[in-house]
Write a structure and sequence with these properties.
With 122 residues, the chain is mainly β. The chain folds into two domains: 1-52, no CATH class; 54-111, no CATH class. Helices cover 0% and strands 43% of the residues. It has no helices and seven strands. It has strands spanning 2-5, 8-10, 26-33, 46-52, 60-67, 80-90, 97-107. The strands form two sheets. Strands 2-1-4-3 form a four-stranded mixed beta sheet, with no helix packed on it. A three-stranded antiparallel beta sheet has the order 5-6-7, with no helix packed on it. β1 and β2 form a beta hairpin.
Length: 122
């Protein structure tokens, strides 16, 4: 399987996987399976092409926050928080636009004690 970003093949040389792409950076995804033309080079089983977002002449942005910590001490979730950000628009330079996207994850899955622990003193 070959992965492409905007038509350019990407591959992490250390492990052979595709590059990570922020969720809000993806505009469209195209999947091509079997019967590949010569333009795809070493792709044997298929091609996945991610088309990234581009800036426009209007400022736009989106923020999404996801959590599984609902404030209850007995929760047994992973204590994972995620934030997704996408911002784009015109720049001060004429006919130049930008789009920035990123995401972050915080996970604290250290097992918390439900009850209080007591230590015996001597």
């Amino acid at each position: 399987m070959q992965f492409q970003i905007d038509g350019v093949p990407v591959r992490d040389p250390s492990n052979g996987n595709s590059a990570d792409l922020a969720a809000y950076a993806v505009e469209n995804t195209e999947q091509i399976m079997g019967g590949l033309d010569a333009q795809y080079g070493n792709a044997q089983s298929g091609v996945v092409n991610y088309q990234t977002k581009e800036g426009t002449d209007r400022f736009e942005g989106e923020v999404y926050f996801q959590t599984d910590n609902y404030g209850e001490p007995q929760n047994t979730f992973d204590n994972m928080d995620k934030v997704f950000v996408g911002i784009g628009g015109p720049s001060p330079v004429k006919n130049l636009t930008y789009y920035f996207s990123g995401e972050g994850t915080y996970q604290d899955n250290y097992p918390n004690a439900i009850g209080m622990r007591s230590t015996a003193g001597s």
